[in-house]
Design goal:
The structure is a single chain. The protein has about 450 residues and is α/β, with parallel strands linked by helices. The protein has three domains: about 100 residues, 2-Layer Sandwich (Gyrase A, domain 2); about 140 residues, Four Helix Bundle (Hemerythrin (Met), subunit A); about 150 residues, Rossmann fold, CATH 3.40.50.300. It contains 15 helices and twelve strands. Helix 6 packs antiparallel against helix 14 and helix 7 packs antiparallel against helix 13. The protein is flat, with a radius of gyration of 29 Å. It binds guanosine-5'-triphosphate and magnesium ion.
């Protein structure tokens, strides 16, 4: 399924806008020619990894900028093809000029993720490593960065390669048995195969279980704020963010849509979600808001229920829920001290931010618990999780076929191997590749 596009492409690999320098990369077979023309003939035979400071020119020989170019000769480049990095001054006008010149030279603008895709197509990296590059770029936490770096270096790939080899050898026993078809060795083969499939199932299960940690570490935890109308959810949301993001009024039912904003708590990256107050209502818009709120609560990593009176229904304290009693500024000291005997509730005033250190400490503790993971290997994408679930299903079916039919076992082991090939990107269908690389930005 690995196909190579022949043409040469380029892209800006640093963010748009003004900066001290910006980097444009060119990759493909016309890289040398483009470099030769861009430097007005100054660089004829570029040397691998050599950097040169010089002027670059457009097709009419007008100066574009004074730049640093670094050439990488394929296959010893990021993409595996000839590649050049051009470090210009970080002005969008200069970048535009380089773009127009390279288009004039017959090169094309890279598609999202095409540099990494080339690296994959040239067998420099597998699909897991490609995804790890994406998660490295997008990680919002230190741990996420470390995890992604680890996976780029190939530790997760090595683990999956080893698991794939184990299935291949299990399938080898089964096929040998099928070939010789002797009944007296049959039972031995079944016992042996069951043993290795069981071990593989455990390993698969452990990898699948790491999916949620990786998401929390890279993208961040989703923390939803919910409760009845007017309890101060939006006020709390705004106070946590330190700016007036949500509209606050004293009218019950102010917030309709869900509102999401990223933030950090301790070492954790979080997305706080403000929701519509939950009540039965005839208003069709508010009704939709309540449905959305419920969906966000269901999918959240942590939910914070806001109440203003103890008599309000309090969700049972679970691992994923905190209960916060708001508007404590309206209570006198005696009333508050009386309420504070309830240790399961955090007392705050969203209006004047009292009780916030305790609230943040609790959120931090909950997220600490959720991100603690001792697994040596961790997966980082939904695709990896889904692929491993398919492998798990095949392995289970191989194990659970009651008659211990060797042909059925062989069929499911074969299915699992095929899925491992997809996971590593050995034989991934084009639509899978498309969805992996389209998540990258142009220039990556
Ligand atoms: N005294 C006091 N008033 C508060 C506090 N928090 C919020 N309020 C007030 O309560 C009213 C409702 O606040 P919101 O933040 O809009 O409440 P909400 O839960 O988002 O309400 P809906 O969006 O309608 O569900 C506003 O008048 C706020 O000023 C607080 O800590 N103390
Ligand atoms: Mg609100």
């Amino acid at each position: 399924m690995k196909k190579k596009k022949e043409n040469t492409f380029f892209g800006l690999s640093t963010p748009q806008g003004r900066s001290a320098t910006a980097t444009i990369r060119i990759s493909g077979e016309k890289t040398r020619t483009a470099l030769h023309r861009l430097t007005s003939g100054k660089i004829k035979n570029p040397k691998h990894r050599k950097s040169t400071v010089l002027n670059i020119y457009n097709k009419n020989n007008n100066l574009i900028d004074n730049v640093v170019v670094v050439f990488f000769e394929g296959p010893n480049s990021y993409t595996g093809d000839d590649l050049v990095e051009i470090h210009t001054h970080g002005n969008p006008i200069i970048i535009n000029r380089v773009y127009n010149t390279l288009l004039d030279f017959g090169l094309r603008i890279a598609e999202p993720g095409e540099f990494t895709r080339s690296a994959y197509l040239n067998n420099k990296i597998d699909l897991i490593q490609a995804e790890s590059i994406l998660s490295l770029i997008n990680s919002n936490t230190k741990e996420g960065v470390n995890l992604s770096l680890n996976n780029i270096s190939g530790t997760l790939s090595a683990k999956t390669v080893q698991m794939r080899m184990d299935i291949i050898s299990a399938l080898g026993f089964v096929e040998y048995e099928l070939d010789i078809s002797e009944t007296d060795t049959h039972k031995n083969t079944i016992v042996k195969t069951h043993k290795s499939v069981k071990k593989l199932l455990l390993e698969t299960k452990e990898l699948i279980s790491t999916a949620k940690y990786a998401r929390l570490k890279t993208v961040g935890a989703r923390v939803v704020i919910y409760g009845k109308p007017n309890v101060g959810k939006s006020t709390l949301f705004n106070s946590l963010l330190n700016y007036e993001r949500s509209i606050v009024t004293n009218i019950a039912g102010t917030t309709r849509d869900t509102i999401e904003e990223p933030s950090t708590v301790g070492n954790h990256s979080v997305v706080f979600i403000d929701t519509a107050g939950i009540r039965t209502t005839k208003n069709p818009i508010e009704k939709l808001g309540v449905v959305r709120a419920q969906e966000k609560i269901d999918e959240a990593d942590l939910s914070i229920q806001i109440i203003t009176k103890l008599t309000e229904t309090v969700t049972k304290k679970t691992k994923n829920n905190l209960t916060v009693l708001n508007k404590t500024d309206l209570l006198n000291e005696a009333q508050l001290n009386n309420l504070k005997t309830n240790k399961n509730i955090i007392f705050v005033s969203a209006k004047n931010k009292s009780g916030f250190p305790t609230l943040l400490k609790h959120i931090n503790q909950k997220l600490d618990l959720k991100t603690q993971n001792k697994s040596e290997h961790q997966i980082t994408s939904l695709r990896q999780e889904q692929s491993l679930k398919k492998i798990q299903k095949e392995l289970k079916e191989a194990l659970e076929n009651k008659e211990n039919n060797l042909e059925i076992i062989a069929h499911h082991l074969g299915g699992a191997i095929k899925e491992f090939d997809n996971l590593l990107g050995k034989t991934s269908p084009d639509d899978i590749l498309e969805s992996v690389f389209s998540n990258f930005c142009v220039g990556k």
